[in-house]
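Appendix B. One record, verbatim.
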Amino acid sequence: MARLADYFVVVGYDLDKRGGSEGQGHILQRFPEKDWEDNPFPQGIELFCQPNGWQLVPERERPSFFVSVLTDINSERHYCACFTFWEGLDNPQLPKAEASEVDEDEVPGLVQPAQVFAPKSLVLVSRLDHTEVFRNCLGLIYAVHVDSLSVPLETVIGNLLTCIIPVAGGSQRTITLGAGDRQVIQTPINDSLPVSGSSVAHLFRQLGIVNVLYLFCAALTEHKILFLSSSYQRLTDACRALLAIMFPLKYSFTYVPILPGKLLEVLSTPTPFIIGVNSFFRSETQELLDVIIADLDGGTVTIPECVHISLLPDPLLQQTQTALSMVLDPELEMADHAFPPSSTQPSTLKIQDKEIRAVFLWLFGQLFHGYRWCLHIIRIHPEPVIRFHKAAFLGQRALTEDDFLMKVLDGMAFAGFISERGPPYRPTDLFDDLIANQVERIRQEECSPHKVMNHIKELAEQLFKNENPYPAVAMHKVQRPAESPGHNDPKNLAMFPLLDDVTVQLFIDHAAAKLQTAPPVVKAELKGMVPSGPPLGDIVDRHGHVLANSARRLEVVRNCITYIFDNKMLEAKKLMPAVLRALKGRAARVCLTQELNQHVLQNRAVLDDQQFDYIVRMMNCTLQDCSHMDEHGIAAILLPLVTAFCRKLGAGITQFAYSCVQEHMVWTNMQFWEAMFYSDVQNHIRALYLEADGGEQSIASRGQQESGPAAGGQELLGALELASEQSRLWPTLSKEQQSERVQKEESTVFSQAIHYANRMSYLLLPLDTSKNRLLNRSGIGDVESVSNSYVTNSIAGSMAESYDTESGFEDAESSDVANSVVRFINRFVDKVCNESGVTNEHLKALHTMIPDIVQMHIETLDAVHRESKRLPPIQKPKLLRPILLAGEELVMDGMRVHLISDGREEATGALGGPPLLPAEGAIFLTTYRLIFKGTPNDPLVGEQVVTRSFPIASLTKEKRISVSLSMDQFIQEGLQLRSCTFQLLKIAFDEEVASDLAEVFRKHMHKLRYPQHVQGTFAFTVGQSGKTLVEHKTKDKNQSIKTLSKNLVKSAKRTIGRQYVTRKKYSPPTWENRSSLQSELDEDELSVSEELDQGSLTLSSTIRSSDRQTMSNVVERACCRDYQRLGLGTLSNSLTRSKNEPFRISTVNRMYTVCRSYPGLLIVPQSIPDSTIQRISRCYRQNRFPVVCWRNSRTKAVLLRSAGLHAKGVVGFFKSPNATSAGPSQADSTSLEQEKYMQAIISSMPSYCEPSGRNTLGGFTSTHMSTSDSSDKLRQPKIGALMKQVMGGKEDVPGTFSRGALGQRARVISLSQPRVSGKVRNPPGGKWGSIRGSGRLSAYNPEVGNRLSSKESPQPNGGPSEALFLRQQRAYLYIIGDKTQLKGGKQDSFQQWEVVPIEVCDVRQVKNSFKKLIKACVPSSATSEPSMTFHRCLEESEWMCLLHRVLQVSVLVVELLDTGSSVMVSLEDGWDVTTQVVSLVQLLSDPYYRTFDGFRLLVEKEWLSFGHRFSHRGAQTLASQSSGFTPVFLQFLDCVHQIHLQFPMEFEFSQYYLKFLAYHYVSNRFRTFLLDSDYERIELGVLYEEKGERKNPQVCKSVWDYIDRLNKKTPIFFNYMFSPEDEEVLRPYSFISNLKVWDFYTEETLSEGPSYDWELVQRGRQERLAEEVPDKPDTTTPKSQRCIVWPCYDSRSRVVPDAITKLLQDLQSLEAELGLPPEKWKDTWDKIKANQRAEAKLENRPSFNNSLLMSSNLSHQRRSQGVYLPESGVGSSINLAMDRETSTTSTPVAGRPSTSTLYSQFQSTESENRSFEGILFKKGALLKPWKPRWFVLDKTKHQLRYYETRQDKECKGVIELAEVESVIPGTPTMGAPKNIEEKAFFDLKTTKRVYNFCAQDSPNAQLWMDSIQSCLSDA
């Protein structure tokens, strides 16, 4: 029961204190005078009566009423009902106003009224909120006063103050104040539910749904909210409504529904508030920055920019909005209905108000359901202390990320909610019922709004009933003041009288006495156990992301743990990666903790090193994925486990798991420790009472049955139920029992606190106590902000400071660790002990204990740390040592690294098989190589060894990367090393490798990669101690080599210099020359003067006798044997010239003075004296003048090479007629000499020397030509086309890959179709005309192209016959020159030589192309982008285009030479492309160069002697580092490889030989490919080393010797298919479609590394065999013969050798078994071959190779003259057949129909792939017409392709035959072609659709059907 009103106050205007514009109010009277004991009188009532201030007004206003709310110091709310009316009084300001000036703010001329009105307020102060009752009571008092009723006012007020009504319980009480009035007061049934009347509905009407939701969320997340309205009552209602929808949470901050204007500064308070202010003060609220302002009159909510309101989590927000709109606007749903119901009015306001509140109640039911499962009860007596486990609640709800819920749970309102609703034994209300019984219903219905509405209506009904328990209310009867006409007349209104306080006091005293005598009202409180509702566990499946196939994952986790404890480590290792992946999921983590717990219970906690390591790894991984809140309680369950598992380190020293899992944030989170502590305390207290009362067992057991899967469910349920039971029994216990229980509970908490102090020291003190983890991770700072702790942040600050200042001293630092941990634990202990009521003595004891605990622990840790350091790291495999070459030394020993997988898929297991990479091992740096050796991380292949290595000299790019390894989460630094042997080492340094060590490694690597001088390379340092490596100066120390050869050059310079040298002024080199090395600039200083008489300077006369031997070496070396073989000249002893030879060997360059990059001996025309040569040489770049390098033995045409001409040389050579010359310049003379030189070459050709003169080709039909004359005719037109193509520049080079090779079509350029027009057409862009100068035809003969393509150009005498014309027009010498060089020169008028301008690829292009090629073949990371696929990257690299260009030019030159014209290749500096072309031409034309000796000679002659700059292009020294790596030689080898593929029987060496050279020309293992020219080699003394000089027979200086030795031992370099034809000239296809990617670029052998260092591979294999042998042979089980071959791991050629190698191997092993002396493989081979030949002759069958290869029946085609046919544009079989006939008839192939037939097998042209073709009509897709298409049936690709027309190259579409189901006769459909018989139609049914076809006639259709059918059946 409570008083209806505590105080009645009359407040009036204070006339004495009015000053300035603002008046003041003062209390005139108050009743009772004394304060009630239980309720003191509130201060400041006079401010709240007139919130806008006390003012006098000129006109009487109507009485007003509102209720303001005051909150006292105990946060009790007082409701002040203010009834204000106005009384007149004489204007006190009148006389003053007359005397003074008129006030400024008053309008002049306004007369001041004589009478003004002052406000007076009647105020009722009450603790109950009955607004209407207050309104009626105060109204009645006013009515009594105004209408002067007979009732004394004292009586009315006395009755009012003594009226007592019940607070709650749903009773109905009638009251009367004794003035003939009667009121009925209804009390709510349950006072815990707020009473809202209709205020909530009004609030929503005023602001709308979204705005109110914003305010609601803002209030819950503790923002400041300000309401504005011009009505006071509305402000109060709005505030009341906001509080009502927050139920069951209570607002605990500042709450002032009406704030007086004088107190506006309250708005700048930092705490949250809900305040109402009259709109009158709107302007003052404008500058508030962080306040949300709700304007009730305008319906707006303004949120400042700096305020972020967290809204409800998503599905809930949507559902709430929907439900609210259904309540407030039910018509919305029907708005679109065609027949809307007659009326869908919203409910009345009172009902609507309750419906809205029901929506919010339902919302809180969803937000908080299951909260009771997360309560920890830590004390039961004397009163329950309960804590809420926020992390567990969020984790179970899977809402950890949700901002809104986090803030609500951290807020004060929720803390109040827990303390109010936490206790398990208390009265329950509607919300408890909702949480306990209706959660299931809410969950099922939440998706159907109508069911939700029904539920909400039910809740609303209960809320309404609570407020209005009695439907029919008895009559109200309240007197209202009479509205008399003179009501406003001041005369008849008396002042409100002063009341007699004695009378009122009598009333009050009388009532008080009566109350004391009355018996006390005992209202039975209905306390009961609060039900907890369904546990949280079930809900997770919907919100939380439960992982798929989790059962399988849990199985994996369980198995792994079982394996670990059963010590099956290999099995465990295999499962480990899967387990670590699975542990990302919550279920697996819980499973892990349960499994480990089992093992602790079974007393298996002491582990060995390996087990310990695995368990710790799993724990770390589990904790890694938990957040620091530990919302799933994983860390909590692990806590006891990490203090259980341990390993013995030494005598009496044990290392526990906790020392290895400290790195996680969760251990520094105070809230985690609190939750853990409380949960443990709860368990202990529960146990305490379970022991105490045996009878309680039943409850506990019941709790265990009910408990769900929630973490610790059973304790929770049991504990709360127990507590409830204990609370119920508490009052019945005696005092002693009570105090005993209190004491027991207190000591339980205390003992737990000690236990936790220990635990925390375990996890917070790092193993190495010199590292302070708490401070480093600012853990303490975090805790400050999270936990509601009362220790200020300054402690953390001062700690951090002390740490920084003292960190220099070892002891200071370690004690600092101890201090910070002690502080952390102290704060924890203070907090939990205060909350759980531990006595002060105990608390003091704890504080003294903690430092000792920490200190003790530090001491044990130090011992553990010492011991653990001695342990070898366990899981890391031992480092495997690489095998080194003789003379190869380690520069840096193995550093542990991880080899990461790159973009090649084979090794990662992407294409099947277990992943070999990533692998763990070590990287070794030797003087020769960079080697990685290790084992794969994947345990399934853990026994294999992975090796990747490359020569250090082939390193092309190194870049730093950072890598995160999947197993260990942290990032490591690494390196990515790329080599031009197509290897990529992507390594991450292990954490044990110090970063400075990695830096040292890089430095050493750079030093080795780019030595100061070429003598620093491995080929020179091999066998010496590695120290010389670093100290090498550029000065040459290598004195061991004979000084003889070095002195050669110097003495030569001296002797010449003495006699004939003229010193020239140094002139700066022309621009072409500038790029070359300084040494070439120097040579200009010494130039032999031109008057020199050559006769006197023979070789023997210049060189002293001591140098003779060197010179004989020169003779041998300069490939003179080859020149003799070719008949190009001999060197007799006296060096006399045999005059009848057209060429001679000139010694003009023997001192390397004419051209430093040429060899000493050169072939020049007999008739040219050496002096001329010296002059000519200056016209050419680098002085590389034309020399002969090969002669065709049949046609006697010669091949010459030179550099391109200097710019001045060109003009001089083809001097334009209109160029004016200033006097007889030197250019003239040289130009004449050049012409003489050309003429000499031409005249050396037999065809030219014939007396019949130049115009006939009679000379050509000499003996060796008569045989192939006819074939020449056939071939003529082709050369022209070829030439055009070569000259045709970029447009004509097919830029894309052809479909045959790589899936796109090339534009195949027709070679055999003659051009149609007579004129030379410029292709688009006018490329091939560019040699004519820019746009003008100058003097260049426009008929070159015509002549070459054998078209008749109009002759004066009419066109002669073709043959004659042809012969007449052929030039004797073709000069292949660079387009850019040949601008505007004139043609030789007699047309004896002709320039063929071509575009060459410059070095930069090759360099860039190669970079892209490497990236394509060895990508650094796997990519799924379609633009980055292998073939796309390969195409973009344009490597194939470059090969195509080189091959194309070479084939052209071969053709020209073969038809009897000489060719001079004169491109760039004459040492890159020129060398490639010249070498390829010789290889194609001369079978000798296709043997071992020949190829060696070719490379030595053209590449080494003629000065290809190997060192410069390979960037082998520091000087050439900037120029970068340019693989010109590799390009040449690739071309040879392409030719080898097309003619596999023409080469004595195998593909492996080419790869071997490709590898070793960059490896620097041999000296062969070092330095840039013979001159440099002689200078270093490398060129002519004595045979006996080798100190170390193991070390081969020359790659050729090595190959010879190896070739004797093993057939690895030999090509078994070698079966050459005599004098065979090869003409390979050069189109991109015919080129294949060389497998050298893509293959690798991870088992043994590159196989090109043969002895390493052999030794590695022997070691492996030796390892495998010791295993005892299993006699029981038959050993499987199966052998798994991995494409990137095993060497396929070794595991699966070809048949012949296998037979030879078998022979060897048999010889060994029988003890015979092993025969050399070559002898065996030769014997077999001889036998075969003999047999073949006897049986007269095709020769040996064919029988071996079983391909004798292939038709003879590829060898013959059908050279370019298959690439002709038209690919029809008819054409092909005709060409074949002509070629076979015209070519004499008498004796040898045999091996050449093999070549048709290697042909991969379009025409071959067309099994059947023709025109068919095809029906288009829906609504498309029938169209004729050219169809091609392709058996090899198993597809049916169609084209627009027969000539079309672009395929329109493809039908894969694999998808075809059937071919059936069809019927004509709409739009089919007319006049075609029905049988010509047929249908093709594929899996996707049906194609309708129509042939020309029925037989044709039948033919097609049969062909397709046969293809299908073949497949």
